[in-house]
Amino acid sequence: QVQVVESGGGLVQPGGSLRLSCAASGSIFSIVAMGWYRQAPGKQRELVADITSGGSTNYAVSVKGRFTISRTNAKNTVYLQMNNLKPEDTAVYYCNAAGYETTLKRFDSWGQGTQVTVSS
Predict the structure, then answer these.
(1) Which H or E run contains 6?
(2) What does the pLDDT read at residue 74?
(3) How far lies 71's CA from each of 51, 102, 113, in Å?
(4) C-alpha to C-alpha distance for 70 and 88, rounded to whole angstroms
(5) Measuring CA to CA, which residue among 89, 41, 35 is closest to residue 62?
(6) Do 18 and 85 contact (CB within 8 A), yes or no?
(7) Pairing mode, if any, of strands 46-52 and 28-39?
(8) Which residue in 115, 116, 80 sits closest to 96, CA to CA?
């Protein structure tokens, strides 16, 4: 089994910054991609940013230029640096990891989520 744990959420004023961290652990053979998603109250979960094992990144239009995703392959860890935060960034942020277990069975695992609140 693969576990995913996020950390780093909190309350920040508009224009401020936060850094989220996510670590995947367990019976991991390889990780194909890791990503951050978010879900605001009354809305569907949406992709924020993801990154492949080769370093290719993909961002939602709403966060381009403000958020940066990065990854430490050796530690199966992904980060989301969020700058110039806006009230509309308020949501529960979830980390996802996808890849293969040591049994070569594919996995697609989610963390429990971390709350980000942007408010003055």
Answers:
(1) strand 2-7
(2) 79
(3) 7, 21, 18
(4) 22
(5) 89
(6) yes
(7) antiparallel
(8) 80
CA-closest candidate to residue 69, choices 93, 91, 40, 39: 93
pLDDT in tens, 81-96: 999 999 999 999 999 9
Tell me, what's the pLDDT at 89?
Answer: 98
Residue 33 has what pLDDT?
A: 96
Structure tokens at 63: 């966060």
Query: Per residue in 72-106, is it b (16+ CB within 10 Å) or e — as a string?
Result: eeeebbbbbebeebeeebbbbbbbbbbbbbeeeee
pLDDT in tens, 45-74: 999 999 999 999 999 999 999 999 999 877
Rounded distance between C-alpha atoms, residue 52 and residue 76, angstroms? 11
In this structure, what token pair is assigned to residue 95? 């980390």
Q: 33 and 44 in contact (C-beta within 8 Å)?
A: no
